[in-house]
Specification:
The chain is α+β, with helices and mostly antiparallel strands. Among the domains are: 43 residues; 123 residues, no CATH class; 40 residues, no CATH class. It is built from eleven helices and 22 strands. Helix 2 runs antiparallel to helix 6 and helix 4 packs across helix 6. The radius of gyration is 27 Å and the shape is globular.
Length: 594
């Protein structure tokens, strides 16, 4: 009897324990589901409020004017926490992991962005090794890998030609002329002529182009570009900074507004405002890109107004080019839900806008105290050295290669994110596409390699456009719903010292651009049927195959075999997925390969 009672008590205790465990598991599961739902809900919240921190780290040390004791930017807004990291626990959207069809004949652009240093070949980096049919480092077009199935060969006359998988000619390099010719995915052509003295001629679509001349001011090298567009010439200035074996040419504003105005343009307004002065309603580009972009309904501060200014200006240029008209139209017809350019992505752009305003404020202060001094280094190399993610808005068409070796393009208004600087001695950054418009464009979440010179041109586009927006903001403050700026902070801009000492714009820019376009026609005709020379080297890299070993860092793995197609971030454990393997990291080093 005692044994039966004892056995029954044990059975009840076991049953009670199982019930308790079941309830605990259900509670934990429910809590996890609720947290996931809450996280998803937060991602969908509007972001037109001042961000709590710059991308990559809430509570990080302030930069720019904040670090100098200047007026601090907006922060601490109720409900506005740290934004979700697009690469945290990254999952490729359904259907985007499948290989796309063979890309049409197109270009691998050497800086299609206005002003891109096309002929400058940055050092190796990004995707390496060509495993699993992926991209292959190029011997000639260094920093711009050859897509899977492509071929690179030297002709009998010493020129280098690169073809695509379908055999079409993509790139021509004429070392005698210092010329690179580029045929794009959208049928466009870019011609860049580099000269030993750092001068350059750039020829783009429809006669657009520029002539670049170097000059030295205060012991620092600058470049003046005389642009030619739609029958008009205008000049822009760039400071040159060495980076990993290449030069980054960084936009330098020729004029600065009063320091107090930059403080007004940085800080949030006293209350959100409705702005009625855009006037986009009847513009064809606005309706055309309705699937992609929607302006903020109200503006909490100047950064958000400038963000819409930047995006709208980029999309107007894209519409004018009509490079992707049908492809974008097809994508728009299939687009569902809200705009492709999500509130989260726009919030990240707004953070970069704020940072650019900070940098211009610092430059204005430096110019006011010593006009002879060169501007501070605000290149993408310096920007990415802070270890935080940064986003960039494309300012022109640019062909890229993804981790599978497929070609795709970004066009004006597309957005990419770079999370870390290139590995030492490389000049190519790995990026993820945050927003694009369909067709031949790189799909959202695609991982691509971007030469630092091309990334610099994206940043230049952003800064130049923001500079124009600041000028408009001063002209329109107090109108259309915008609050007025303090009267003492409004006034004519002051010229930068380097701009005052610059040589006059090139009076022969149009003629030089036209002459190089004609020379490019000759190069293409001469090489139309060129065949590889005997014993001509191919595009593949030389030396032993890449090796992955225990203890290697993510940068070492990426340098050896290229960017992964997917990253799963589990805290101390990360999984990099490649077409034919998985590389597992524990605490930042390789622990296993599967």
């Amino acid at each position: 009897m005692y044994r039966s009672k004892t056995g029954a008590e044990k059975s009840w205790r076991v049953l009670g324990l199982l019930i308790a465990l079941g309830l605990t598991y259900s509670a934990v599961t429910f809590a996890g589901e609720e947290e996931e739902k809450r996280h998803e809900h937060e991602q969908q919240q509007p972001h037109n409020a001042p961000p709590a921190a710059h991308p990559g780290g809430q509570g990080q040390a302030p930069r720019g004017p904040e670090a100098q004791g200047a007026p601090r930017g907006p922060g601490g807004v109720p409900g506005e926490g740290a934004r979700p990291n697009p690469q945290q626990n990254f999952q490729r959207p359904p259907g985007e992991g499948a290989p796309r069809g063979a890309p049409p004949a197109g270009n691998f652009q050497h800086g299609a962005a206005p002003g891109a240093p096309g002929g400058a070949h940055p050092g190796p980096g990004g995707f390496q090794g060509g495993r699993g049919g992926g991209p292959t480092p190029s011997r000639t077009f260094v920093g711009h890998p050859t897509p899977a199935g492509g071929r690179e060969f030297r002709t009998a006359n010493g020129n280098v030609i690169r073809t695509r998988p379908d055999g079409s000619r993509a790139d021509f390099h004429d070392p005698g002329r210092g010329m690179d010719i580029h045929r794009g995915l959208n049928g466009s052509r870019v011609v860049v002529v580099e000269r030993p003295d750092h001068s350059r001629v750039f020829v783009g679509r429809g006669g657009f182009g520029y002539v670049q001349r170097p000059y030295v001011y205060g012991g620092h090298e600058f470049a003046q570009r005389t642009y030619w567009s739609n029958g008009h010439a205008y000049a822009r200035f760039y400071a040159r900074y060495p980076y990993h074996g290449v030069y980054l040419e960084v936009y330098a504003p020729a004029h600065f507004y009063r320091v107090g105005f930059y403080g007004w343009a940085y800080n949030p307004w006293a209350r959100p405002v409705v702005y009625g002065g855009w006037g986009w309603g009847g513009s064809p580009w606005y309706g055309y890109y309705g699937f992609y972009f929607a302006p903020y309904p109200v503006y909490a501060g100047p950064a958000f107004w400038l963000t819409d200014y930047l995006i709208a200006t980029s999309l107007q240029a894209s519409y004018a080019a009509q490079a992707q008209a049908q492809a974008n139209a097809d994508y728009a017809a299939s687009a569902q839900g809200g705009p492709v350019l999500t509130p989260d992505v726009k919030a990240q752009i707004a953070d970069e806008v704020k940072y650019d305003v900070q940098q211009e404020n610092l430059a204005a202060q430096a110019n006011a105290s010593n006009p002879q001094a060169p501007p501070p280094d605000t290149s993408v190399g310096a920007l990415l050295s802070d270890g935080r993610p940064h986003v960039f808005v494309a300012g022109a068409e640019l062909d890229l290669v993804d981790a599978y070796g497929r070609e795709c393009m970004v066009t004006e208004g597309d957005v990419v994110q770079v999370q870390s600087p290139p590995a030492p001695e490389t000049a190519q950054a790995n990026a993820i596409v945050l927003a694009s418009k369909g067709g031949n464009e790189c799909a959202r979440s695609d991982m691509v390699a971007i030469a630092m010179t091309d990334l610099q041109e994206m940043q230049n586009h952003m800064r130049q456009t923001i500079d124009q927006g600041i000028a408009d903001l001063q002209a329109k403050q107090g109108q259309g719903g915008l609050p007025p700026a303090p009267a003492a902070d409004v006034g004519p801009p002051a010229s930068a010292g380097f701009a005052q000492a610059a040589p006059p714009p090139d009076p022969n820019a149009q003629a030089e651009i036209s002459a190089q376009a004609t020379a490019a026609n000759q190069v293409e005709q001469q090489n139309a049927n060129a065949a590889p020379a005997d014993n001509a080297a191919g595009a593949g890299p030389s030396g032993p195959p890449p090796t992955i070993g225990l203890g290697q860092t993510p940068d070492q793995v990426i340098s050896a075999i290229g960017q992964p197609t997917r990253i799963v971030n589990l805290g101390a454990k990360q999984i990099y997925t490649y077409p034919d393997m998985k590389v597992i990291f524990m605490n930042g080093v390789v622990s296993d390969v599967q």
